[in-house]
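Pair request: fold both.
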Amino acid sequence: MPRHAARSVGAIAVAVAVTVALSSTTAGAAVGRDDPTNARWLPPVASPTVVRGFEAPEHAYAAGHRGVDLRSGADEVVVAPALGVVAFAGPVAGRSVITIDHGDGFVSSLEPVDAVVAVGASVAVGEPVGVLSPEGHVGPGTVHFGVRHRGEYVNPLLLVGGFERAVLLPCC
């Protein structure tokens, strides 16, 4: 191989290595620790069973089920599903509700839950935020878990993971 070709190959290899190193550092910085899509999400109750799944409405004011109802398989402690700050804790339409702001447009709501944390408190993933209230529309031992991303409701189970997803099988 001619001398100038060897230098060109070496220069290209160095340029590729620098580009890869910079792009992985930039990507890591862009995602960051505060990005909820990169964070760990947990179910808000222990050993949950899905009682009712997410049903997206056709439009903003249409009927739907904007969250999931999870029955606890253990105790009545409700935990923060992800890192965040308690944005609201109090009654809404006769039910106790906790809302947590997780950053980057993600907000979760839990009901009926009697809060053991104050508005403005920082909470870690899995940290107790309340206990299931006996009142509510979901039945005893059950929490309604909703998540909004930039104002739009999303299926919380897509963030939490650990639940079986529907699989479409070929027909005929």
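--- second member of the pair ---
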Amino acid sequence: MSKGPGLFADIGKKARDLLTRDYNTDHKFSISTNTLSGVALTSTVLEKGVVHAADVSTQYKYRNALFDVKIDTDSNVMTTITITEILPSTKAIASFKVPDYNSSKLEVQYFHDHATVTATAALKQNPLVDLTATLGSPTISFGAEAGYDTTSRSFTKYNFGISVTKPDKCASVILGDKADSIKASYLQHLDESKRSAAVGEVYRKFSTNENHEVLPKSIVTISGEIDTKTLDKYPRFGLSLALKP
């Protein structure tokens, strides 16, 4: 695969994961083992209040194909097949769920030194189709995403994003909900080993005219500046606080 920009889904992902991922107050127990034939087995039991859930997943890699199968206590069987380099610089991901066949989908990803493109379609008669494209480099990238409903022949979504990534920091801005909302995030690692980091996220929806005030009549403004002609230089970020009596 190339060393170009990441996928559109990667824009803002580091900050989003740090804010929301793997924070769990429930009791969870997992056991993993690997066989000599290369099969990985994982058993998980989760206790959430008075509700108990369990699943068994297996993973097997054969040449350029990876097979994932997961079975839970609700008799759901989820299968994911990932094939890399089926064509040069491409990856294909097919997922199926039994008995909910309507959730099955196929995704194809293409990677280039200066661009990435993905196409995802539900495997049913009138599928929803998602397309994404990202241009740039690992340091700075611009991306767009669109969803199309083949039944109603209308766009279900279109989003735009920009991401700037440095070894110790990253920032992103996403214009989403058909250009009706904006989300900006910033992550700063606090040490060289990247074991600690600070992250902030600001979200605003235009149609509802939402304004978040730190204190009554007090407004926080965050601004940024990027010179696309000198990408080797760090971007500038500013913070201002307006207090009204």
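Observation on the second member. The chain has a mean pLDDT of 84.
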